[in-house]
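Notebook entry, structure prediction.
Reason for the run: the old model in the group folder had no record of what sequence produced it. Starting over properly, with the input documented here first.
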Amino acid sequence: MVTERHGFQAEVSRLLDIVAHSLYSDKSVFLRELISNASDACDRLRYLSLTQQGLLGDDPDLEVSITIDPPGRRLVIADNGIGMSHDELIANLGTIAKSGSAQFMSELARADQEGETNADRKVSLIGQFGVGFYSAFMVADKVTVTSRRAGEEKAWSWESEGRGEFTVTEAQKATRGTEIALHLKEGEDQWLDTNQVAKIVAKYSDHIALPVRLKDGKSQRHVNQAAALWTRPKSEITPEQYTEFYRHVAHGFDEPWATLHFKAEGKIDYTGLVFIPGSKPFDLFHPDRKQSLKLYVKRVFITDHCEDLLPAWLRFLKGIVDSEDLPLNISRETLQANPLIAKIRAGLIKKVLGELAKIAENEPDRFATFWENFGAVLKEGIYEDEANRPALLKLARFRSTQGEGWTSLAEYITRMKEGQNAIYTISGDELAALQRSPHLEGFKAKGVEVLLLTDPVDEFWIQSVGEYEGKPFKSATRGAADLDQVKKAEGAKEEKSEPKAEGIDNLIALMRLTLKDAVKDVRLSDRLTESACVLVAAEGDLDIHLEKLLRQHKKLETALPRVLEINATHPMIASLAKAVSKGGQNEALADACWLLLDQARIQDGEPLPDPAAFARRLNAVLQRSV
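New structure, fully documented this time:
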């Protein structure tokens, strides 16, 4: 019999290294992962058998079994589900073909650098990525998987010690399904204790809607209720049972932030058991990420990727939906066209948004935790989903120049100053950089609050929405700031009317002549109080941050010229204006004009188009000053 030897994919080798050398708070998670995988295999076979007659054969009762073998120091988890072929064994257990694997490994590396205190974070990542099978190597120094695909005659054996390679050999197996034999490490004797294993299975897998049998020698017993958790009355379900079911469907290790268990009755009947995770998935913004609510029909699993069941902006939700009205033999291809799916979708959205609104009103601190994890995703809904936009705008929270916490749009409006007619915003990559932006100086002086936006989607939903409760959104970096109309707060220090610096008009004329097409215009600023200059977008032009995003994604080839605003009260500007009125145009003044422009670019975090010229001019100015 030929034995094939294969090397693990680099990502798998990294996973196995983490499993082998990290300390975990609870090793029993391996049993939950393997039972969960076995349950999924049975669900998939049940679904396929609806359209492929004969797959169940004379073994229609699907189940999971656990066998304890003390003499052989083995723990065996088996199922009579769909099974795996030769190629599937290699693909599923030897490689990670899933999109986002590079990002996944990056997150693992980051968690690894944080040390053993973050070990559970690593386990959580492994579970999220759907490769919880490798947790078996926490307790086993060798794993043997024997599997026979339903409908096929041949069986295959996969075996590895978790050290860089695995073997695949043709095997003998009389029935379909998969059998995973764990050859236990020294010191892992607790997994040979029938009562201990039964206790763990009851804790982690009581909700699985399949019988789980525990076999020890000639005796065997059921160790779970084998009833779908979502079919039980809520009053009979403990918080711990909800948590374990969440971890089963989410392959997560965190606590659910919120649990929604409901039954819709009327024109359509369905049950939902939906969870909002307590932590943000690492691949939340990966373009290939799919929503992951599992769809059942009359307790029969149909699919875990029904794209029309949820909008993309709720893709973080986990759980199940069980319909009483969809036909059992519905195919995944025809789900999209089924009107019942659209009705269930609308009901799910309404339920989730209603629960979020209730928590936002009654538990603002708790809601802030949710918003930090998933607020950027909900903002996608503001942009994409016009029907649910009003509800989403009420939920939206923002950082602002008013304190360190989160604020809503409604709260912002209550703090608007007399004469203020717009909701001001500023966008950027980092909150700290925005807080230091010179664009905010005039707003701070007048006590005008500005929302600080750091999510890329902010640029797009604001363009789409335009206004909130009659107040237009206006960027603090675009056009005239219109701060003259805003009345200063009562008791605020009155600004002295500064006389126009001598020669300021001549300086502006010189800067326009020197900088030419590098800027759209040069003008005096009413937004600056401390900085010498700043670049702003002209009315009707792209916002500065939006332009930056478009250039980063190759949607815009060249930077657009901006308006350079100068602060006439700044000592340096006043000195330059005085020098222009005395000496006219010269090389030193031309260098100063270009340095002011480059200074404004640096303040906005923009790369300089000609660093060498900047260095030459700076050196010349320094040399002249010595």
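Summary: The longest strand covers residues 140-148.
The old model has been moved to the deprecated folder.
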